Structure to design on (491 residues):
C-alpha cells in the first residue's frame, strides 16, 4: 500500500467515525447482556479503503496478543522472508590429538529453533571433527542483545512465571530453558519423569494427592522451586496438590538459564563420549575465533506461524529484539546491525525505534503507540484500533502478504481460532489473530464478506467483565456480522 493510500485510510476513519459509530446489534446485544458498556470497546471494519465501522477507533487500548501483528508485520518487512537466526560453536584454540587446547564458545544469534536436539546435533559434529576433550571452558555468548540477561531484570508478569508463555528470551535461549515433566498418579503414588536429562539435576514432588478432576490439575499447582546441594546437585521440587489417578505433562522454566545450559551441555557431551573438566561461564566471543559448526533456524515465515497461530509470546519477543539487533543477510539470513548501539542504549529501545520508523514510512500516526516487548503480554502496551487496522491494510498489500497471511489462525480450523465460529460463514475463510488477558479480549485480521470481498477487522474490549466468554462472544458476533454482510448495491 502506498503512503497516500494508508493516509487515505486514516482520513476515512476519522471522517466516517460519526456515521459508522454504532456497534452492530448482535454485538451490542451481547455486550448489554454482559453489562459491558460500549465505551469499553474499540472497533474498526474496513472494506477496501471504505470504512464500514469505526467505533472508538481512536481510543488507545490494551491489545493483548494482537500486538504480535505489529511485531510480525514489521519484522517480516524489515528482516525479509529469508531471515534466520543462527547459533555458532567457535574456538580460537588448536586441536591436538583430539584435545581442544582452549575454550569453546557457544554464541547466540536469536535462533528461534535452538532446542536440545539441535544442541546435541552441533556437539555430535564436534565429535565427528575428532574433538574428544575440551581443555578450556565453555563460554556462553548472549551479547547480541543488551542487556544480555533481560530475564534477570524483567518484573514477574503474573503468579506463574515458570510456565512457557512467561519465558523471557535472550540471544542464546537454549531449549527455551524448559524442563518437560510427565506426572502420573495412581491412587497413592505420584511418579515423575523429566526431560531432557541434565547432569546433576533431579525432580521430586512435594504434592498432596487429592480427589479432583484431572482436567483441572493446574488448580492445585504451586510455583516449583529448586535446591542446590552441597555436592553441586540441583533438585527441582514441584509443589501443591495433584489429582489421584491422573496423568498429564507440563513444561516449566525453573532453573536459572546458566545452570540449565551448564547441566545440559555436560550431560549431552558426556553421552556423546566427550570429556570436559572446565567451567561454563558467560563471556563475549574473543576476537580471533573460527567457526566449528552452527545451527540455523527455520526461515522467518515459518517462525511467524508459531508466533501468530499459537500466540507464542517468547518467539514474538525474540523477533522483536531481533529488530533492534539484526538485519537480513543474503547468504546467512541474519547479521548484526552495522551501527553499534549508543552508550547505554538497550536492544528493546532500538526495536521500538525500528517499529516507529516503519509506521512513519507508511504514514500511519504512531502517537499513543506504546510497545514494551512486542508480544502483548504486557499491562503497558497500547495501540489504537485505527492504527492496527492501517497496519493490516499495509500488510495486505505488502510483497510478503502471502507469508504474513499464512501465519494467521484460520477461523474454525487451526491455531487459537480452531474451536470458534464453526457454524459461521467466517469458518475456514477468515484469518484472525486473537488476544486475551485479564480484563482484555481482542481480535484483528481479515474477514471475507458475503460477496467474498476482503475486510480488515480490528476490535478490542478492555473491561473487567470480559471473562467467562462474554467478551469473546461479542467479538465472535462481530466477525460473523462482517462475514454475513455485503456492500450496498450501486443501484
Amino acid at each position: 500500500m502506498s503512503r497516500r493510500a494508508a493516509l487515505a485510510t486514516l482520513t476515512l476513519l476519522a471522517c466516517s467515525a460519526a456515521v459508522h459509530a454504532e456497534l452492530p446489534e448482535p454485538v451490542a446485544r451481547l455486550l448489554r447482556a454482559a453489562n459491558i458498556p460500549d465505551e469499553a470497546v474499540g472497533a474498526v471494519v474496513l472494506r477496501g479503503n471504505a470504512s464500514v465501522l469505526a467505533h472508538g477507533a481512536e481510543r488507545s487500548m490494551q491489545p493483548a496478543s494482537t500486538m504480535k501483528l505489529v511485531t510480525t508485520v514489521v519484522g517480516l518487512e524489515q528482516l525479509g522472508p529469508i531471515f534466520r537466526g543462527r547459533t555458532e560453536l567457535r574456538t580460537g584454540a588448536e586441536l591436538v590429538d583430539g584435545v581442544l587446547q582452549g575454550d569453546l564458545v557457544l554464541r547466540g544469534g536469536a535462533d528461534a529453533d535452538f532446542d536440545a536436539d539441535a544442541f546435541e546435533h552441533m556437539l555430535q559434529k564436534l565429535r565427528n571433527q575428532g574433538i574428544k576433550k575440551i581443555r578450556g571452558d565453555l563460554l556462553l555468548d548472549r551479547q547480541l542483545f543488551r542487556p544480555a540477561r533481560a530475564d534477570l531484570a524483567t518484573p514477574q508478569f503474573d503468579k506463574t512465571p515458570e510456565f512457557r508463555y512467561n519465558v523471557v528470551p535472550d540471544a542464546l535461549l537454549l531449549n527455551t530453558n524448559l524442563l518437560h515433566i510427565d506426572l502420573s498418579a495412581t491412587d497413592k503414588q505420584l511418579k515423575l519423569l523429566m526431560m531432557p536429562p541434565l547432569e546433576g539435576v533431579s525432580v521430586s514432588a512435594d504434592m498432596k494427592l487429592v480427589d479432583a478432576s484431572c482436567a483441572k490439575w493446574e488448580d492445585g499447582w504451586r510455583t516449583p522451586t529448586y535446591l542446590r546441594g552441597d555436592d553441586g546437585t540441583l533438585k527441582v521440587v514441584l509443589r501443591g496438590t495433584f489429582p489421584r489417578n491422573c496423568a498429564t505433562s507440563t513444561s516449566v522454566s525453573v532453573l536459572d538459564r546458566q545452570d540449565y545450559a551448564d547441566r545440559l551441555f555436560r550431560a549431552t557431551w558426556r553421552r556423546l563420549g566427550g570429556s570436559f573438566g572446565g567451567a561454563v561461564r558467560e563471556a563475549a566471543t574473543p576476537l580471533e575465533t573460527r567457526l566449528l559448526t552452527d545451527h540455523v533456524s527455520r526461515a522467518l515465515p515459518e517462525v511467524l506461524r508459531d508466533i501468530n497461530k499459537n500466540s507464542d509470546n517468547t518467539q514474538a519477543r525474540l523477533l522483536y529484539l531481533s529488530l533492534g539487533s539484526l538485519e537480513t543477510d543474503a547468504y546467512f539470513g541474519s547479521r548484526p546491525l552495522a551501527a553499534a548501539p549508543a552508550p547505554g542504549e538497550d536492544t528493546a529501545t532500538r526495536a521500538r525505534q525500528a517499529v516507529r520508523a516503519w509506521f512513519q514510512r507508511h504514514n500511519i500516526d504512531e502517537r499513543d503507540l506504546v510497545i514494551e516487548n512486542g508480544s502483548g503480554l504486557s499491562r503497558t502496551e497500547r495501540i489504537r484500533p485505527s492504527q492496527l487496522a492501517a497496519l493490516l491494510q499495509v500488510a495486505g498489500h505488502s510483497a510478503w502478504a502471502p507469508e504474513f497471511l499464512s501465519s494467521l489462525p484460520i477461523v474454525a480450523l487451526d491455531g487459537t481460532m480452531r474451536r470458534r465460529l464453526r457454524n459461521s460463514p467466517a469458518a475456514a475463510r477468515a484469518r484472525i489473530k486473537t488476544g486475551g488477558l485479564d480484563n482484555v479480549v481482542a481480535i484483528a485480521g481479515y474477514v471475507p464478506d458475503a460477496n467474498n470481498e476482503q475486510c480488515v477487522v480490528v476490535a478490542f474490549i478492555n473491561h473487567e467483565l470480559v471473562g467467562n466468554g462474554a467478551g469473546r462472544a461479542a467479538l465472535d458476533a462481530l466477525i460473523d456480522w462482517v462475514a454475513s454482510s455485503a456492500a450496498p448495491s450501486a443501484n
